[in-house]
Amino acid sequence: MSEVRNATRTPLQMAALVVGVVFLLVGIAGFIPGVTANYGAMTFAGHHSEAQLLGVFTVSILHNLVHLAFGVAGVALARSAGGARVFLVGGGVVYLVLWLYGVLIDMDSAANFVPLNAADNWLHLVLAIGMIGLGLVLDRRSVRTHRTAG
After folding, report:
1. Which helix or strand (DSSP H or E) is residue 100 part of?
2. Which of 44, 50, 69, 85 is 20 to 30 A from residue 8's alpha carbon, by CA?
């Protein structure tokens, strides 16, 4: 007899899935002229890219590819609670490091290879706090729910 898989996702897994899908959509949107202003001025990487997602966030081909990769990781890791936690907390730490990097580098230097602007930096901080917060709070709730149900 084959086992029936539990098709329900925990809130932690749902959060990772939603965040992953949003990253996929942002990565795709970065390649759409009109959604991305100055699309023709997009470079592969570096601070010389003048393309701006929604006219606000500086993007490059590499930046968009990273968003797509993050999205794929989020969707894939949302398949398990442990994976979802790793994606949210680990991804949040990555965004915290990226925020620190953006704050510390000269945005007009060659070190700004992502590329980043002030709006990107603030968004990275919000993402870091949000992803880490979701990963920790929802993980604690799922552990507490599991203990009381068992």
Report:
1. helix 91-104
2. 69
* Ordered strands of the 57-58 beta sheet: 36-37, 52-53, 57-58
Q: How many domains, in total, are found in the chain?
A: 1
Rounded Cα distance between 34 and 137, Å, is 37
Tokens of 97: 């490091």
Q: What is the pLDDT of residues 75-112, one digit of tens each?
A: 999 999 999 999 999 999 999 999 999 999 887 887 77
Residue 23 lies in a domain: yes
Print the domain residue range for 36. Answer: 11-149
Report if residue 68 sits inside a domain.
Answer: yes
Q: Are 131 and 91 in contact (CB under 8 A)?
A: yes
- Tell me how far apart the alpha carbons of residues 140 and 16 are, in angstroms, rounded to a whole number: 15
